[in-house]
Amino acid sequence: MKKGLILEGGAMRGLFTAGVMDVLMEAGIEFDGVIGVSAGACFGCNYKSGQIGRVLRYNLRFAGDRRYSGIGCLLREGNLYSTSFCYDEVPLKHDPFDFEAFGSNPMEFWVVATDVETGKPVYHRYEGLEDHGFDWIRASASMPLVSQIVEIDGQKLLDGGISDSVPVEFFESLGYDRNVVILTQPLEYRKEKNPLIPLMRAKYRKYPAMVDTMARRHTDYNRCLDRIAQRERLGELLVIRPAGKLDIGKTEKNPEKLRAVYEQGREAALRRLEEIREYLSV
Questions:
Q1: How far is Cα 14 from Cα 31, in angstroms, rounded to an integer?
Q2: Where are the strands (E) in 52-159, listed by range?
Q3: CA distances, 226 to each of 187, 243, 276 (Å)
Q4: Within its chain, how far is the Cα of 181 from the centroid?
Q5: Which of 16, 30, 75, 259 is the one with CA 20 to 30 A from 242?
């Protein structure tokens, strides 16, 4: 049996995921591998480094900081979330990421990005600071329209959620056969067609394959949710999701809302902790 943790993105909805992860870490629940998409990658790396509480801590401290995110960052850098501050100053200076613990933990950590030239997902096993710094995680979380394209070893990359929002099939292809999935939308949620596709076509006219992927993202994502729900009913996946729509914006700065969503994640995990233990021990 190979145990996996699969983390959807969702920008600041990822505070729900952080709450779930902290409860699992406090309970000593270990996985053979974790895969994160977008915010799931940014926050999920803390599972491998064992840094309980770090996601909430640095977001409460910096989410409202103009150096961290906002229109000013977008105008200065072309990124809504500052590359220099979010992926350099915060993890290396203000709230250090424990690269030593990350490297010593045998757990695999994977991130998903999207190749802008092909529109297809890129799956990368991230190895830490020497693996292009935080660029792979940054690429996974680089939302279209408000982020610069990230280039790594000749590949041009953007947000992994464009092409594979919940990479269950990929993880299973690696042999992960006992997977816990953390979603950031409730069971009844269905994605609607993106009204900004005409703007996407104009901005990314050099990358028509990616635009086509974005144009059908709502149907692909909804089919993915349907498959996950069906497999959940069959007991083939264990899914943790919010009970209702999370009261939080994608770029939320209100510390009370950030903490409230984090606590919802904790509560969801605590309610099902014994079920999770039993599922992973089969």
A1: 19
A2: 108-115, 121-125, 150-152, 155-159
A3: 9, 17, 22
A4: 12
A5: 30
Burial (CB < 10 A; 0-12, 13-18, 19+), residue 190, is exposed
What CA–CA distance (Å, rounded) separates 168 from 170? Answer: 6
DSSP reduced 3-state for 34: strand
The dihedral sign for the CA sequence 191, 192, 198, 199: negative
* pLDDT averaged per 10 residues in sequence order, the chain, 282 residues: 97 98 98 98 98 98 94 94 95 97 98 98 97 97 97 98 98 98 97 96 98 98 97 97 96 96 98 97 78
C-alpha to C-alpha distance for 46 and 41, rounded to whole angstroms = 9
Closest CA to 243 of 258, 221, 265: 265
Burial 115-149 (b: 16+ CB within 10 A, else e): bbeebebbbbebebeeebebbbbbbbbbbbebbeb
Q: Are 41 and 141 in contact (CB under 8 A)?
A: yes
